[in-house]
Amino acid sequence: TALLGQYHAVSTGSDYFIGEVAITNRSTAGLTWQVTLGMPVGVGALTEHHVTGSGPASVLRSGQVLVFSGSAALPPGATATLTFRFATAGGAVVPTACTVNFVTCDGL
User: Fold this and answer.
1) Do 101 and 67 touch, CB atoms closer than 8 A?
2) Residues of 30-68 as b/e, b for ≥16 C-beta within 10 angstroms?
3) Stretch 74-101: mean pLDDT
4) How confident is the model at residue 89 (pLDDT cuts 50, 70, 90)?
5) What is the rounded average pLDDT for all residues in the chain?
6) How far apart are CA 56 and CA 48, in angstroms?
7) Measured between alpha carbons, how far is 15 from 88 in angstroms, rounded to an integer?
């Protein structure tokens, strides 16, 4: 696939969870990207998200599914990292799904 997604849990606290998805463009052209996350029941509000290595992302949430859409094409060979923080009741959180442009992320 042209875009590779790699999921990674960053940090967990008593009332939050931080994770990230690294998106790498392995093609020879700039590509737009979209990350879809399915979060388990009990994961609360998305309290923060940001992108490094590319422009900001917009986000739409429907229940426990979130779709992050990049605002700019990712150049060939480049990697952008989407970092997100959710409110939780504590404990480790593993997404029920993670895709980049509909291809399953590595790392789940």
Assistant:
1) no
2) ebebbbbbebeeebeebeebebeebeebeeeeeeeebeb
3) 92
4) confident
5) 94
6) 12
7) 5
Instruction: Compute CA distances 22 → 10, 37, 63, 99, whole Å.
Output: 12, 13, 24, 11
- Amino acid in position 70: G
Strands 79-87 and 65-70: unpaired
pLDDT digits (tens, 9 = 90+) for 56-68: 999 999 999 999 9
Contact assessment for residue 33 and residue 80, using Cβ atoms and an 8 Å cutoff: yes
- Res. 71: pLDDT tops 90: yes
| CB-count burial class (<10 Å; 0-12, 13-18, 19+) for 12 | middle
What is d(CA 68, CA 88) in angstroms, rounded to the nearest whole number?
20
Report the alpha-carbon distance of residue 85 to residue 102 in Å, rounded: 22
Give residue 17's Cα distance to chain centre. Answer: 13
